């Protein structure tokens, strides 16, 4: 089966005072009559067989309010925030080895849904037929310093714009962002991933064995999840796994994507006059 894991436990502190602990940005509306988490669920329903959400207990009342029909049995609670590597690893425990996992954040704005779905279907097909960790890279529309970048390597599949990943790059300064943009070899790092659960387990055990062993402990002793999970470092999936693995590829996405990670990103969404106001 193909299943979605939605990461919905973040706070979005860079959008203070709109995004706060009591109501993070995924529960806000940006250019839509629905919250971002509602839109995320609807997009993924067209693509996968089942959706699972990982969040925190303190955010669950918001989920119940905005998503009253979402099945409670498909919600996983992260005991405390430990960034994306532990969250994804914990969420993966609800998937079978033969499942294909599609991991997406709950707080991104995506337009041109047709091209988004086409890109994700390409990633799913590739993940199902290869021992690879697939990440989605977005074609940049301008030099931007607010995103990390993926440097493309050689073409793996010309027909579907699948490339080996040469390197992940941190958010650049403006001059470097201009160089990235002009080169045509750099993509925005979207934080969306696709892989088979069995491949993820294998790569995690090889490249981040400490995290893998903790998740195994939690499976064996679920009643001790808080004490066990607290031992984990706060680390992103990029640092924890993707930069360490030799099996990473990227599918290039050509659709509007915005992570609403700053007020500049919010401004990009707004309809403007000829003076940019």
Automatic annotation (TrEMBL):
The keyword Transferase applies. GO terms for biological process: GDP-mannose biosynthetic process. The keyword Translocase does not apply. Keywords: Nucleotidyltransferase, Transferase. InterPro entries: GMPP_N, Mannose-6P_isomerase_type2, NTP_transferase_dom, Nucleotide-diphossugar_trans. GO terms for molecular function: mannose-1-phosphate guanylyltransferase (GTP) activity. It holds the Pfam family NTP_transferase. Residues 3-270 form the Nucleotidyl transferase domain. It comes from the Bacteria. This is Mannose-1-phosphate guanylyltransferase.
């Amino acid at each position: 089966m193909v299943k979605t894991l939605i990461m919905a436990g973040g706070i979005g502190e860079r959008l203070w005072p709109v995004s706060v602990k009591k109501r993070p940005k995924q529960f806000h509306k940006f250019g839509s009559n629905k919250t971002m988490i509602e839109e995320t669920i609807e997009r993924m329903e067209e693509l996968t067989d089942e959706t699972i959400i990982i969040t925190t207990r303190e955010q669950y009342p918001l989920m119940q309010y905005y998503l009253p029909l979402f099945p409670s049995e498909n919600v996983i609670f992260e005991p405390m925030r430990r960034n994306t590597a532990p969250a994804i690893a914990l969420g993966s425990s609800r998937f079978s080895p033969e499942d294909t996992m599609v991991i997406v954040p709950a707080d991104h704005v995506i337009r041109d849904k047709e091209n988004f779905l086409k890109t994700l279907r390409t990633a799913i097909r590739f993940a199902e037929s290869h021992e690879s960790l697939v990440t989605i890279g977005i074609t940049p529309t301008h030099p931007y310093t607010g995103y990390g970048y993926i440097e493309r390597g050689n073409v793996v599949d010309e027909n579907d714009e699948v490339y080996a990943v040469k390197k992940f790059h941190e958010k650049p300064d403006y001059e470097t962002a201009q160089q990235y943009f002009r080169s045509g070899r750099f993509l925005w790092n979207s934080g969306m991933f696709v892989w088979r659960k069995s491949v993820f387990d294998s790569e995690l055990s090889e490249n981040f064995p400490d995290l893998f062993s903790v998740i195994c402990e939690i499976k064996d002793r679920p009643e001790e999840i808080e004490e066990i999970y607290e031992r984990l470092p706060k680390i992103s999936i990029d640092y924890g796994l993707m930069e360490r693995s030799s099996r990473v590829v990227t599918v290039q996405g050509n659709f509007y994507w915005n992570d609403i990670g700053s007020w500049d990103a919010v401004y990009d969404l707004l309809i403007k006059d000829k003076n940019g106001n």
